[in-house]
Each structure stands twice: as C-alpha cells, then as structure tokens.
Design goal:
The complex is a heterodimer of chains A (214) and B (487). Chain A has 214 residues and is of the alpha/beta class. Chain A has ten helices and six strands, in the order βαβαβαβαβαβααααα. Chain A has helices spanning 10-22, 34-44, 62-73, 88-95, 113-124, 132-145, 153-164, 168-175, 179-193, 201-213, and strands at 2-6, 26-31, 48-52, 79-83, 102-106, 128-130. In chain A, α2 (34-44) runs parallel beside α3, α6 (132-145) packs across α7 and α7 (153-164) packs across α9. Chain B has helices at residues 2-12, 20-60, 66-93, 120-124, 129-132, 135-139, 147-159, 162-173, 178-206, 220-256, 260-317, 319-347, 350-355, 357-367, 384-405, 439-449, and strands at residues 211-212, 215-216, 371-377, 409-417, 420-427, 454-458, 465-471. In chain B, β4 and β5 form a beta hairpin. The chains are: A alpha/beta (214), B alpha+beta (487). Chains A and B meet through α4 and α6 of A and α12, α13 and α14 of B.
C-alpha cells in the first residue's frame, strides 16, 4: 500500500515513516510542507495520505486545507489527519462530504502503534476513524439533548466505539464481550435510534456519525 | 460610556415583524413626541437666557463686591441648566455629551448634582485635585468671619473654570441657534393649528383682508382650503420635529461638551486604568501558566522519568512488572500531553489562530452542549488581541448560558457595525442574569475595556437574555484610528 506522509518535524516524520514501513506500507513521499504535499499527492497518486494538520509555510491548518483540496479533486481519496489538538469544527469539515475514507486522530495516538496502523488501513479501505475525544464530545451533546437517552450503558459504550470507527472485533476485544453480544447490542442500538442498519461497516460508521452530528 | 451600553441594549432587541401601518403610526408618534420636546426646549431657551443674563449681571457687579455673592449661585444655576440640557440630549437623541468638571468653587454638593447620566466610575476617574483642592467650597458659611474672603475665593475659582465660560457662551448662543432651530417645526405646527382649528370659526368675524398664508379666507371654500393647508403645515412641522431635535443635539454637543483638555485628561485617566488592568491580567495569566506547567506537565515528566528508571531496573528480574510500569509511562505521557493541550487552548486556541474569530466561535458552538447557531459576517481577519478577547468573551457567555439560564438554544451573531465589531449572544433561557453578580461578566468587561469595548446585558426575568458586545475600531489599528478619540 502506497502512502504519502506529511509532517514538518523531522523526528516524528522519520518515526512515522519507519513505523509504516515496518507494517508493510510503502512510503512513496515524506514531505514537510503544504505545497510539497499537494505536489506529492498529485504526482504519486498514493492509496492513502497521513497528514499533520499544521504545516509550513503558514503553520495554521495547511495540512487540512491540502487534504480537503485533494479530496475535492479526487473524491473519497483516503486521508488520515494527525493533529496536536482535535477540533470539532475540523472533524465536521472532514465528515461533511459524507464519503468516508477519512481519519482524524490526536498525534499521541501514534504511540499506540497497532491502533495507529489499523487506523491507516481502515481509512485506506474507505473507513472512517475519529479520535475518541471527538466522539466523546459528540456523545455528550447527544446525551444532553436526550437523543441517546434510550440506550443502556453498555449500548452507549458500543455506540461510542462504533462511532470511533472500530471494527466489531476491536469492540469485542475492548469491552471483553462476545461477538454475538456485540451484534445484539448493535442491532438494538440501530433499532432504538432508528438508523438504517447496513451490512457494510463503513456505511454503518457514517450513519452513526450522521446521527450524532444532528 | 455607560450610556452607550444602555443604547446598545436597545439596538440589540429584536425588532419583531412590524407592519408598514404600524411603522407609520410609530413615526407619527415619534414626530409628536419630538414636537413636544421642541416646545420644551424653546421654553427652556428663555430660562437659559435669564440665567445667562443673571451671570453677566453678577460679573458686572464683581467690581462693587455684590457680584461675589451673586456669582456662585448664578453660575451653579447655569450649570444645572446646562446639565439638564445634556441629559435631555442624551435621553432624546442618544447623543452623549461629556460633561465638564464639576464647577470649581461652587458650594459643596451643587457641582456634583449635575452631570446626570454620568456614572460614578467616570467621575471618580477625574484627577483628584479638582474638587478636593477647593477647601473654600466645603467650608463655605461655616465661619461667619471668613465669609467675604471665602466668597472672593469662590468667585475667582469660578472665573478660572473653563467649563463656566463655556456654559456662559452657550447660554448666550442657545436662544439664537438651538432656540431658533426648534422654533422652526413649532412655528409650522402652531400656524398650522391656527389655520385648521381657529380660522374655521373666526373667518366670518375677520371679514375682508383675512389671509391665511397665501389664501384669502373669504368664503367657506377658501376656509376649507386654509384648513387643509393648515393640516399640511402641522404635518410638515411634525415631520420636521425629529430632524430639528437631531440638529439641536448636534449643536448642543458642540456647545456643551467638556473642554478639550478635560476630555483628554479623562481619556488619559481611562487609558492608565485599563493599561494597569491589562498588565495585571497579563501578569496573572503568566503566573497561571507557570503554575499549570509546574503542577501539570512538568510533574508528570518527572514521574515518567522515575517510572522509566524503575522499569529499566526491573527489566531483567521482573519483565512482567517492567511491562506494567511501561504501560503506566505511556498513560502518564499522554496525560502530560493532554495537560499541555489544555494549557495551550486556554492561552490561544489553535482554531482561532488558524481560522479567525468566525470559525473559532463555530468551533465553540460545536463544542457546546446547547444548540448554538452562529451567524458570522466578518470578512477578513481582526487584530489578534481583539479576536482573542472576543473569543473568550463569547466562550464565557456561552458557558453562562449553559450553566445558569436553562437555555436550550443560543444564537450568536458576529458582524461589523461601522468600524466596530459587534457580537450578540441571545439565549432562550429564563433570563434574570445580574451583571453585577457574575464574576465572569466582570472579567469580560475588564478584558474588553482595554479596547474600549462594552458589554450590554439585556436579561429580563423570564428571558430571553441578550448580551451585546461591542469593540470599537476593531477593524483598524487602535493606534492610528480616529475613533478611539476622547470622551
């Protein structure tokens, strides 16, 4: 799988590059600024881009702008955004198209190599991965408005992990429950929230996020 | 300054969906009210003339000594009148006229009685010497023997008061300028009423040669024409009255505002105060950052180092324990990062730096547990300091709405009002917010005052609450701007 990496700090760029290569990714370009990122995306046409949100020359949201631009030119082009901070506004902008194949994670999450690599793979295959901080806030809003009031505590936990973009296997593992229990909870959540259940995992995440964003 | 606050609250109130008919009726009503005020002003012009005459009389009598006794009360009376005009102007047209210093040498208390509508805060900002440096004024009449010397001193102090001379100049000019201005609509209305209400009854008695304006009133037909013409005059007068009042306000402002020097002194006082506040706030902020770093990230990094050391020692003897320790290390490091993130967010949120005020407030809205609608009409970026102050103010107001008001929905509007930045935050909560009690609101005011900004809170019991925040000259550099002026 071919990856373009954009990160302006040399140590982090090097570390990420190494991590990705160790897990079978081919890093076709590792750049340190916005214009170079756009060029690399255009020339290399990678399978997925891992992009730091804050890049030279402006050191603002250069990376996000480049990613959104790339997705305008190539809809549903998989991008994983890394950031020192997560902001609900940026999460909403990334999700706005409703196409999936997008990820938004705190930079600290890369210290959990397995989860990080899973996230890159998931995004590359069209999945949606949102940082737990983003999801926690979305859920808190839904709770405050009572839109998730019917759920049991366990269903609530499952919904949270589902919204983060975790697979059934990951949910099973995190909550220490059986696969059938996950399936049962999922079905119950979809029935209670009146979300159309979908066999496709990616669609399922998008539907849950759309519900929470209301 | 306080007056502007009150008016901002009025502006912020939603206008509602009035019909064209309702608007017309409101305009007529406004016209009549303005006409009534013109009438009052024109009558007051006579009183002003009398007071001016009295003062000049006192001045002329100064050489023979009688003037010394006469001048202080006359000057005080004149000041009361000019203060009355200042407050009328502010109440009727919204034109705030900065009052001069309390009359020097006037009997204690009388000087302070004036300047209505000016909050104590502005007054107390006056450099100390003006009033406390008038021992004669306070001791007046307490010792009979000192009476004449005392009067002499008071009179000479009044003569040296720039505000007094401005008052006097105004008293002599007001009848000829302001008085005539307001007389114009009055003349139209009075003459119109004469045509419409009196002519129909008296034209028969007046006989030949009875003209009303250009109409010879000699038959019922011409009488009707005069009646219609009279009504036309009344309508024109009523229509003209608000404009005349507006012009009168402009003239009053020219004639009655504090001498330039006083205005400058107040401005300096205000700037000194707000600068000291800003520096205090900045120092407190730095202390907070230092403390947060010391107690948060720094402490965690130390703990992290110790845990790593322990893990290294255990690596060979007890790999299990070492692994558990390393898991702790990871958790601690991510907590340290979270501490730093929170700290940075409290100093300057990244989204504000990245995108500016509009998007930063949108981000706040998405973060809030309430239903927040943001309407931002802010092309371009504002100065960073203004953005930051406005952002934290909106954040505080949103938090207040969430905590105290029981609101479900909040509407935030950001727009330019001329060179000023205006932000309205309205919620559908239960209202009754007390600006005097909220520590957060006080903090917002203090932060805004560095930019001469204001916060108006309109929160009747039962709601809704509307907070209007204005920062003048937000779109230009305050250093070069002409509207950061005096007053």
């Amino acid at each position: 799988m071919r990856v373009v990496l954009a990160e302006d700090l040399f140590l982090l760029r090097d570390g990420l590059s190494r991590t990705l290569q160790e897990h079978g990714f081919e890093v076709v370009a590792a750049v340190d600024n916005g214009p170079a990122l756009l060029r690399a995306l255009h020339e290399e046409r990678p399978d997925v881009a891992v992009v730091d949100i804050r890049l030279p020359p402006t050191f603002t949201d250069e990376g996000l702008q480049a990613a959104l631009e790339a997705r305008r030119l190539r809809p549903a082009f998989p991008v994983l955004i890394l950031s020192q901070y997560v902001d609900q506004l940026y999460a909403h902008e990334l999700l706005a198209g409703g196409e999936g194949a997008v990820g938004y994670l705190l930079k600290d999450r890369v210290t959990h190599t397995a989860q990080f690599v899973d996230a890159v793979r998931s995004v590359a295959s069209g999945g949606t991965v949102m940082d737990p901080q983003v999801i926690a806030r979305l859920l808190a809003r839904s709770d405050a408005r009572g839109t998730t009031a019917e759920l049991t505590a366990r269903e609530h936990d499952v919904l949270e992990l589902m919204a983060e973009g975790r697979s059934n296997a990951a949910i099973m593992h995190t909550l220490h429950i059986s696969e059938s229990a996950v399936a049962k909870h999922t079905a119950s959540i979809f029935a209670k929230l009146r979300i159309e259940a979908s066999a496709d995992d990616n669609r399922r995440v998008l539907a849950v996020l759309a519900y929470l964003k209301r | 300054m306080e007056q502007r606050v009150v008016m901002a609250a009025g502006d912020g109130r939603p206008d509602g969906g009035r019909t064209a008919f309702g608007r017309g009726r409101a305009a007529v009503r406004r016209g009549w009210v303005a006409a009534g005020r013109c009438q009052l002003l024109s009558l007051a012009a006579f009183v002003v003339t009398a007071a001016g005459g009295l003062v000049v009389g006192a001045l002329l009598l100064l050489p023979v000594g009688l003037g010394r006794a006469l001048l202080p009360p006359a000057a005080t009376a004149l000041r009361r009148l000019s203060d009355r005009h200042r407050s009328w102007t502010a109440r009727w047209t919204g034109t705030v006229i900065s009052p001069p210093e309390p009359l020097a040498g006037a009997a204690a208390g009388s000087g302070a009685g004036g300047a209505p509508g000016v909050p104590a805060g502005v007054r107390s900002g006056v450099p100390g010497g003006v009033r406390s440096g008038v021992p004669g004024g306070v001791r007046a009449g307490s010792r009979g023997g000192d009476g004449s010397r005392d009067r002499r001193r008071r009179s000479s102090r009044i003569l040296g008061d720039e505000g007094f001379w401005r008052d006097l100049r105004w008293a002599w000019l007001e009848p000829w300028t302001g008085g005539l201005l307001v007389a114009l609509p009055l003349a139209l209305i009075h003459y119109g009423l004469f045509g419409a209400l009196v002519q129909p009854f008296v034209w028969r008695l007046l006989g030949d040669g009875n003209w009303y304006a250009f109409v010879p009133v000699e038959s019922p037909a011409t009488m009707l024409a005069a009646l219609v013409l009279g009504l036309g005059f009344v309508a024109a007068g009523v229509r003209l009255a608000p404009t005349a009042l507006e012009w009168h306000a402009r003239w009053s402002r020219r004639a009655l505002s504090a001498p330039y020097r006083t205005a400058l002194e107040r401005r300096i006082e205000h700037l000194t105060d707000t600068r000291a506040d800003a520096l205090d706030a900045q120092a407190a902020e730095l202390r907070r950052i230092e403390r947060d770093l010391h107690d948060g990230a720094q402490a965690r990094l130390v703990a992290l180092g110790m845990a790593l050391d322990k893990a290294t020692q255990l690596l060979d003897s007890d790999p299990q324990a070492a692994r558990a320790l390393l898991d702790d290390v990871r958790a601690t490091s991510s907590r340290a990062l979270q501490d730093l993130r929170d700290l940075v967010h409290g100093i300057h949120p990244p989204v504000l730096a990245d995108r500016g005020l509009g998007d930063a407030v949108r981000s706040l809205a998405l973060d809030s547990l309430l239903d927040v609608h943001v309407e931002a009409r802010l092309p371009g970026r504002l100065p960073a300091a203004v953005e930051s102050a406005a952002y934290f103010a909106v954040g505080e107001l949103l938090a207040n709405a969430g905590k105290h008001s029981g609101a479900r929905e909040v509407r935030i509007r950001l727009e330019h009002a001329g060179p000023a930045l205006r932000i309205t935050v309205g919620d559908d909560g239960r209202g009754g917010a007390d600006p005097a009690r909220g520590g957060g609101l006080h903090g917002i005011r203090r932060r805004l005052s560095t930019f001469d900004g204001t916060l108006a809170l309109h929160s009747p019991p039962g709601g809704p609450t509307i907070a209007t925040l204005e920062i003048p000259c937000a779109s230009s550099s305050p250093k070069t701007s002409s509207c950061s002026g005096t007053g």
